[in-house]
Each structure stands twice: as structure tokens, then as C-alpha cells.
Amino acid sequence: MDARAWTTGDGPKSLFDAAAGWLRERRVLLPGASRLARLVGTVREAANNRLWDTLYGLLSTGQQAVLDSLLSVPPGARVSELDRLRRGPVRISGPQMKWALERAQEIAAFGMGEVDVSAIPPRRLAELSRYGIDGKASLLRRHGDSRRLATLLATAVYLTSRAVDDALDLLEVLIATKLLARAERETAKEKLKTLPRVERASAKLAAAFQIVFDSTSEQVDTDTGEISPPEVETLEAMWERIEQVVPRHELAAAIAALFDLTPPLDSDADEAWRIQLVTRFSTVRPFLKLLVTVVDFDATPEGLPVLKALKSLPDLMGRKKVGPAEIDTGLLTGSWRRLVLSAPHLEPGTVDWKAYAFCVLEQLHRMLCRREVFAKNSSKWGDPRAKLLDGEAWEQAKPSVLASLGLPAWAGEHLAARAALLDGTYREVAARVPANSQIEFDDDGRLHFAPLEPEPEPASLRQLREAVDAMLPRVDLPEALLEVFSWTGADQAFTSVTGGEARLKDLHVTIAALLVAHSCNVGYTPVIGAADALKYGRLSHVDQTYLRLATYRAANATLIDCQASIPLAQAWGGGLVASVDGMRFVVPVPSVYARPNPKYFGRRGGATWLNMINDQAAGLGGKVVAGTPRDSLYVLDVLYDRDGGKRPEMIFTDTASYSDIVFGLLTLAGFAYAPQLADLPDQKMWRIDRTADYGAFQDAARGRVDLARIERHWEDILRIIGSIHTGAVRAYDVIRMLSRDGRPTPLGDAIAHYGRISKTLHILRLADEPGYRRQIKSQANLQEGRHSLARKIFHGRSGQLYHRYQDGMEDQIGALGLVLNALVLFNTRYMDAAVNQLRADGFDVRDEDVARLSPFVRHHINMLGRYSFHLPDLSGGMRPLRDKDAIDEE
Q1: Residue 697: which pLDDT band, with cuts at 50, 70 and 90?
Q2: Phi/psi of residue 514, each to 5°?
Q3: How far apart are CA 618 and CA 557, in angstroms?
Q4: 346-379: per-residue pLDDT in tens?
Q5: What angle, 0 to 180 degrees and rounded to 10, lies between the N-to-C axes of helices 248-261 and 181-216?
Q6: What are 334's strand-pairing partners?
Q7: Residue 157 to residue 151: CA distance in whole angstroms
């Protein structure tokens, strides 16, 4: 228990349950509950004191003074230095970028990043820093020396890397949206403006040259087909004919206009917007020197030339003449070479250093995203290769990782078995093609599926659904939350960030009110009441002290386990099938963590909640990401970072989550991956044996999996998946690392080849089993139903997220996810009771109908207008069911 308290910082309930479980496993006589609770409290207090004392002991007297100064309010200021520094950038602009780098520089100057805190468990350090980030400076001042300074040290260590993360996040979005994308948009607008002039000039030239071609081409008699030589005219005669159509001065003006409005013949498609980009140098001028100074960049061999060029930019800025020998001309690809070396305004022997700076920044952006250039003093933008298990650490972890994933150390037999499985499946499915009316092949051998017919709804299902819905009790949203708390004790997961164990009176009521305020997006005002638990001061204190992503996740784990124990949920599935999909939110306030996408967000930015739901309708976790990136970059991280529940075995996603590399990584990680393939006819199927005859699939199976390539990289493949499996590195970083500009690296290509075996098996199963296709569709519908309920709950302020920082977004979406799971649990338990009551009453209840009931009904739960926090005395723990035949007057 002491080890768990030291490494995890779990709350008293979690430690109590773990201690009781440990004693039962060893068949030790259990002490009284109060005695064990006191022991848990003593152990937690000792672990917290040890944490504070250890961190306090790392500080010199000078460092203590520096940290204490963060709590002071400078003359003329309204907030403390800590309050000022913990606020990151919000606007996407050059001046804000300069401010973000200055903030990172100021925090780094404290020197707390040099303090060795490796002896502290990362989770404890993160929790302590979270308290420092969210807590009020006035509250921190009241703590004793060891606790106060330990908290400030953890916060300063966190801010040292977080400030660099914030600056690079801003740099990435600034280059992508405000520079590159804006230059392309403005160039496109300019082209539209000049299009009428180009069309008129082109029409005149076309008319003139048509006369030239007619005069110099062979003549064909349309009646006889006889070919006669061209009627060669004198130049003067030809001009006379041309000027009858287009006057000479108009033709000269048209030629001049086209030279002015169209790019040179040797130009490329990017030159126009790059010219526009160079005019925006004032945006990057303020921060270029700081960028090189503040961020401790490093690079792989491929990214090293770009990094060297970046570091040389400050010496070139502002100079009147820069020669070609002072820049790296090897970086000048495409139209950059013309713009940098031979722009019309340049003097002989000079280059356009502004254009060169943008050439370097464009490539820096690409290299940063691929982590070919990385920041050593950043956690998010650091080198993922350095985090991979290697050397002795990999050798120690390797046996347990391979055993856990069921992978061999040597690839030979494993790949032979996969090859035999693919070959056998091809032959079995091909043999059943003549009897399969669900598929057909076009003239090019491409596979097509017949549309799935809607599954019919029998009268018995409609009657059961109506009866169950009518029996559900009518409640307000807060009452449902309080009732779920009474069943599960999920409110006990909300522990104080300060580490204190005292529980406020009616804390569960305050937590329910805050969950309503955040999940409904309505703020405090609608839930404020006369009771002490509902007063503004109490709500604000509990919000800052008890509600955070870690406590949402702990409470969610309790709800997921409770959902899995209900017979009705077990009728829906075993909890081993899950799907991952995204829900979009408009972010109308300036934010670095919101990205544009006109399709989903109109003229504003937005964010995506990528979340996972199992076949028992329980949300297992999620992740908030900026904009609408491809789900495939994050799906593995969502799977490994679950809040709770069983580890899914089969994963369904939409097409956006698909790639061959993701197929390979998910298969290696032990998941059966089943994405929807919207563009199925264009999907290449893969074989291993070139000579095998696969019947109807012979033309479709036009790709060949290279087993030798997989085997050559097998050790590195194992190290990659082992590092992801143990949490040493994020899958997102690995996937970005395995591809370059849309093309996989040699290691990425080997993983993709491994994934193509699973991809082909998946397509063959789709072709052979209509029930498999329907299962994927049903799970997708289940997730859509959850998102629909989420929209209904998150109704305030037009359903838009008003948070500038990612932490705030994650906290609010965490509250929404928890309320979703609570309502699903509330519905499932009452629907299960209703089904049992109907069976007892002799109602025709069929198992196949029960499996199609939805827990996302909401007509009986009030989410608008009034919020009652009164929980009646429930004998048996539940409300009575309503009479299904009673007239609904509401």
C-alpha cells in the first residue's frame, strides 16, 4: 500500500479497495473497515510528506527564493508572477509567437529544468504540478515550506518544457494556417480576380493563331478527302487577315497581359503562392532570432541541413547583400531556386534572403512534423527515437512484451503461418464466390459489394421498445447523476488536488452541479442554489480543487465496471468489441488548439473529441485533438489510454482511421482491426505467392507482400510495438516518424507490408460474411447514437467550446464523457429492470429484440430549464418503474 501511495497518489477509496483486495487474495483476516481506513489515511499522509520533503531537499537557498518570488505580485500588476507565466499563448500571430518564446526563455532562466527530479514517480510529479498550475497563489502561500516549494518546483519543471511545447504548437499552426495556407488562399483569390483578363487575352491570341495554323496547314476536302498543300501567304497578307479579327495593338496588349498574369514556362505550381508568402516576412521577423536562441533544436541526419540553415538565418537578416555562398542552395527545391537566386529585383551575385528564410521555414515545418528536427527541451516536440526502448531497457522488457503480445523473437515461423492463413482464406472465400450474391467484380477485376439492406424491425421489437420507454422514470439530469453516485460511489473518485482527505459536506451534490454546468455547457448560473453545496464560492472551490481529467477518468472506470455487470448490457455484447470515432466542436474563441476546417467549423476553428465506445455502450475513453486530423494518427493512443473496462479485442473505425501502417501496428498490438472501407473498389488486395490461382480474386490480388522485407526489420518492428505497448512513446509520434511526406520510411514500409496481410484478410471477410459487415455498421450506429445524446446534453452556448487552452477543453469534454456514461448506466439499469418486469408480467420479450434496445433514449430526462438536486429516499436503491399503460401527461 505504501508503494502504491508513493507511485500513484491514488485517493483513499482506491487504496482502501486495493488493500482489501490484497488481504483477501492472501486470505488474511480483514481488520475493521474504520481501522483499515485510518491505516490508509496514515499511509497516504506519509507518502505525501515524503514527496514534499524529497523535492524540497533538492533545492538550494537561492532556488527557494526564486520559487517563492513566483507567488508575489509585482508593483502595478494585478496577478502574481505564477499566474502570468502559467498562461500560454492564445492568438495565432507573429507578436504572440514572440511573446511565447520570451515566456519560454523567462521560465527556462529560473534553472528548474536542471534540477534532477528523476527519483520522483512521474505521475506524482504531474499531479503536484497540476495543483500548482490550477491552484490560487494565495492558497499556495499558506502551505508550509516543504509543501509550498515542492509544489512550485514541480510546477516550474512542468512549465519549463510546457512553455516550449506551447511555443512550438503556435509555430506549427502559425506556419500552417497563417502563412502557407493564407498565401495559397490569397493567391487563389488573385487568380480569380485576374481570370477575366486572362480569358480575354487568351481568346484574342487563340483567334490570331488559329488564322496562322489555317494558313500553314494542309487543306482537306471534306467531300472527297483530297489533301492539298497549304496556301502559303506572305507575312503581310497573313497580318492583314489577323488584323481583320484582332487589331495588332490589341494582340500586343494581350501578349503583354499574359506575360504579366501567368507564370513563366519553367515555373511550378507553387511559385505564385510562394511569391505571396515572401511578402509576409514582417510576420516572422520578430521571432526568428528568438526561435533559434530559446528552443534547443537537434535533428536527425536528414533534418540536419534544415537545422543548420535555420541557425544561420539570424546572421542574414537585415543585410543589404547576401551572396549564394552564404546559404545552402541544396535546400532550394522547385520554384524556391528561382525566387532566391534569380528574382528580377536582385543585383548580380546576390540572393533574396527573405525568400530563403521562408524556404527554410517551410522545410522546418515539415521536418518538425516528422520529428526529423526536434526540440530537446520539449516533451511534445522531442525526439521519439530517444524514447524508444533500447539497449538494456529493451532486453529487460522484451520477454514480457513478447509474451503479452503473443509475438515471437524470430519472424520466420510466424510469417509462414500468416502466409498460410492468407493463402487458405483466399482459396476458401474464392470457392464460395459463385454462391455469394453480395459481391461482384468489374471488368478490371475490382471488388464491389452490394448495399446492405436495412435490418427489418419486427412488430415485437417496436412493442418492446415502446413498453420499456414508457416504464422509465422521469427525472432531472442532476437527480440521475446523484442516483448513479448512490449506486456506484463514483463521486468518491473526486479527490482534492491538494492531497487532503477531508470531505466537504454534500460534496456529491456540488460535484453533480458542476458536472451539469460543464457537460451542458451552461456555466454556474443555472445550478447555483440556496443550499451551501450550491453557492457560487463552493462551486468555484470544488471546481478548481476536485474536478480534473484524472478524477473524471477514475470516476469513469467505476461506471464502466458497473455497466458491464448489468445483464442487459451483457446481452448487447461482451465488452470486447469497440469503435473509435470523432465528434467535432466549434471553438469560437482565439486558440492555438483549434484549427480551421470550413466543412465542419465554417469560418472558425474547432477541435475533435476522438472517443471510444464498446459494444456494451460504455465510453472507454477519448482524446481531444486540434482541428480534424486523420484519426489514424491517434487511434492507437486512444486504445492504450483507456479510462477502464476490458481491453477490446476487435476495433471498428471509419475510413479516416485507416492506413496500412496503422493496420500493421494494431495487428502487432493484438487487436483485430476492422475499418469501414468507403473506397473499397480502389483498395489493392495483397498476396504473397505470385503463382497462386485465387479464382475470382486473381485480378484484385494485384499487390505482393514482401515477407523478406518484414523479416529484415523484425527486431526494430518488435522494439517499436514494444515501446508503444509499454507506454514509453506515443503511437502518434511513432506513426509520424514512420512516414515522410506521405511516403513510408524503410521501417514504416516493412510494418505496412505486415499490415497488408491483415488488411486483405479483413477485405476477404467483408466479402464472405454479410454479418461481419452488419456488425461493423451496428457498432458505428451505436457510436452515432452516443454522439447524438452528447449533442443533446452539450446544448448550451450553441454547443460550442469556449476554451482557449487544451487543458480546459479536455476537462470540459471529460465532464461530458462522464455524464454520458452516467446516463447510459442510469438508462441501462432501469431498462434491465423494465425488461425483467415485463417478462414477469407475461409480455412477449424475445432475446433478439432485447439485444437491439438502445440505452441512448433521453425523452424521460430533463436537461433544460430546471435542475433539481434532491434525491428522494429510494428503497432498494432505485425508483419505481412507471406503468407502461399509463397516460403520459408530460
Answers
A1: very high
A2: -70, -35
A3: 10
A4: 889 999 999 999 999 999 999 998 899 999 989 8
A5: 150
A6: none
A7: 10
**Per-residue pLDDT for 297 more than 60?**
yes
Rounded CA Rg of the chain: 33
Let me know if 783 is exposed, middle or buried by CB neighbors in 10 A (0-12, 13-18, 19+).
buried
178, 116 Cβ separation under 8 angstroms = no
Q: Where are the beta strands (DSSP E) in 36-176?
A: none
Which amino acid is located at 673 in the chain?
Y
Q: Are the CB atoms for 343 and 359 separated by under 8 Å?
A: no
- The confidence score (pLDDT) of residue 96 equals 95
CB 625 within 8 A of CB 608: yes
> Three-class SS of residue 269?
coil
Whether 577 and 648 have beta carbons less than 8 Å apart is answered as yes
> Bridge-partner residues for 449, per DSSP?
439
- Which among 49, 133, 37 is positioned nearest to 499, based on CA atoms? 49
Q: Which of 799, 804, 812 is nearest to 543 (CA)?
A: 812
Cα–Cα distance, 668 to 302 (Å, whole number)? 28
Crossing angle of helices 145-173 and 353-370, rounded to 10° = 120
Q: Domain residues of the chain, as ranges?
A: 2-161, 178-384, 459-555+806-876
379 touches 161 (CB < 8 A)? yes
Minimum mean pLDDT among 186-190, 230-234, 660-664, 759-763: which range?
A: 230-234
Q: What separation in angstroms does the CA of 870 have from each of 70, 478, 825?
A: 43, 8, 19
Q: Which residue has the cell 513563366?
A: 264
User: How far is it, in rounded angstroms, from Cα 272 to Cα 339?
Assistant: 10
Which helix (H) or strand (E) segment holds residue 752: the answer is helix 746-768
CB of 282 within 8 A of CB of 318? no
Determine the Cα–Cα distance for residues 317 and 587; give it in Å rounded to an integer: 37
DSSP 794: S
Cβ neighbors of 133 (< 8 A, separation 6 or more) are: 86, 155, 158, 159, 807
Q: How far apart are CA 112 and CA 27, in angstroms?
A: 47
Torsion, Cα of 640, 643, 648, 653 (10° steps): -70
Query: What is the band of 603 on the pLDDT scale with cuts at 50, 70, 90?
Result: confident
Residue (of 614, 635, 613, 632) closest to 623 by Cα position = 635
C-alpha cell belonging to residue 27: 486470505
Neighbouring C-alpha atoms within 13 Å toward the C-beta of 637: 17
Half-sphere exposure of 383 (CA within 13 A, CB side): 15
Q: Regarding beta strands 439-441 and 447-449, do their DSSP bridges make them parallel or antiparallel, or are they unpaired?
A: antiparallel
Buried/exposed 298-323: b ≥16 CB within 10 Å, e otherwise = ebbeebebbbebbebbeebeeeeebe
What is the average pLDDT value for the chain, to the nearest integer?
Answer: 90
* CA–CA separation, 534 and 510 (whole Å): 6
- DSSP class of residue 409 equals S
**Mean pLDDT within 697-705:** 92
Of 756, 694, 592, the C-alpha closest to 178 is 592
